[in-house]
Amino acid sequence: LTYMNTTTSKFAVNCVDEPRSDMLRHGDTTGRELPNAACHMQTYNGGLQCCAHKNFLTDLEQDPLIPNKTDTYFLKWRYYFQEYVPANPANNTPASHLSLYHWVFLIDDAVNDYEEDNAHYGQASMGRITAHLNVDTMGIENRPTEATNVTFLVMTPHCHAPSCIREEIWNADTGEILCNVSAEYGRPEYGSLNEVFNEKDYVAIPPCIFGDQAGLQTPWTLPFGTNITAIKYLNNTYRHLGQMAQWTGLIHYPGDAY
After folding, report:
1. Closest CA to 37 of 117, 127, 124
2. Contacts of 172 (CB under 8 A, 6+ apart)
3. Contacts of 108 (CB under 8 A, 6+ apart)
4. DSSP strand E in the chain: where?
């Protein structure tokens, strides 16, 4: 990929085959026997690989019009926390917190920049992409060598407006749905569609949170080797570039130190 005839970057996308991902064979989100356009540079229509540092989405003739200026901005973070209280064996009181670890995987495997297409452009349509994997390959971090299973406390998808509809993650061995999240868009019942965070195409993605507290679903504990199916449903009435379809969250290893 060349930018303004001045810089060149390597196009490196490895679309893996089914069952892990349908990007290579049925990846255009319509179910047709076609690879996703992002799998090959010759069919890549744009996305994250075009958004490198100091790249502007302008034509070559417009390059002299771009001012040589640098924008400076600041980020402010606020952290909420509770002080950790160790376990007290004397009165059989557990520690106040568990050790949690991160996990993440991509339904589209290593692409993370895929394209959503339509067999009949502009005709209302819902597409999907699917992945088949197991707990061992869900991107779980810091797995103890002695661990045989894992407990999920947070499951949440990552997807983009305005096309994301829903993501599901299933235990393929039992047929149980582990988490089902529908994207929430700005709606009139929440106020004006011009209000911050309630804009018409602003998307919110509520997570699945598990726990032993009242009102929460009991956490899923899955043995390593459990087969998983993950699905993303999307509005592909029109083409969308630079799309993502992730699952991520927090886990705890039963028996792990607090």
Report:
1. 117
2. 132, 226, 227, 228, 229
3. 21, 23, 27, 36, 114, 129, 131, 244, 245
4. 2-3, 7-8, 101-106, 114-116, 126-134, 149-158, 164-171, 176-182, 184-185, 203-204, 208-209, 220-223, 227-235, 240-243, 246-252
In eight-state DSSP terms, residue 168 is E
186 alpha-carbon distance from chain centroid: 20
Distance CA 107, CA 109 (A): 5
Specify the amino acid at residue 165: I
Quick check: helix, strand or coil at residue 184?
A: strand
Residue 257: the pLDDT is: 61
* pLDDT one-digit tens code per residue, 185-215: 998 988 999 998 898 888 999 999 999 899 9
Q: How far apart are CA 101 and CA 119, in angstroms?
A: 41
pTM across the whole model: 0.90
The answer to whether 102 touches 250, Cβ cutoff 8 Å, is yes
CA separation for the pair 234, 165 (Å, rounded): 5
Which residues pair with residue 208 across a beta bridge? 155
- Summarize the confidence of residues 80-107 as an average pLDDT: 93
| Helix or strand holding residue 172 (H, E) | none
DSSP 16: P
